[in-house]
Amino acid sequence: MAIRRRRGWSPLGNLLDLDKQLSQMFGEGEESSTSMTTWSPRVDVYESGDDLVFECEAPGVNKDDIDVSVENNRLTISGERREEKEAGGDDRDYYRTERLYGRFQRSFALPEGVDASDISAQYDDGVLKVTLPQAAQAEKQTIEIE
Prior knowledge:
Strand content: 25-35%
Radius of gyration: 21 Å
CATH class of the domain at 41-83 and 101-136: Mainly Beta
Number of helices: 1
Shape: elongated
Order of helices and strands: HEEEEEEE
Number of strands: 7
Structural class: mainly beta
C-alpha cells in the first residue's frame, strides 16, 4: 500500500500566503506575529513488516493530553498542547512568539485488512507511535468448475 501526500488548492493556505505577503508589504518582517496559522502535528505513515505505523510529532504535549481512537475504519489522533505558564503569573514581555498552542485532531482512513482490535501506542521524546497490525493478505483462490 502506498500512501502519498496530496497538495492541492486550500482556502486556508491561500489566506496564509496573503497574510504573509501583507505582513511583508507593511514592514512586519517575514511573518506577522498575528499569523492565522493553526497548529497541527506532522504525521508519517509507513509499513513496517506486517504493521501499519503512524508516527506523530507532538513535542511539548503531555501524554495524558493525547487521545487515540479507531471508529468506522478511521484512526483519529487528537490532543492539546497547552501554553506554558509560570506559577504566580506570567510577567514576560514577548518580542515575538512563534510556538503554537491549542487543540489538534488528525484523522486517517485505514485500508482494508487492518486489525484495529490489536492497536498499540507509545509516546517517547515527543513522538507518538501508533502501530496497527495488518491481516495477512488473502491469496486469490481459484475454484474449479465441475
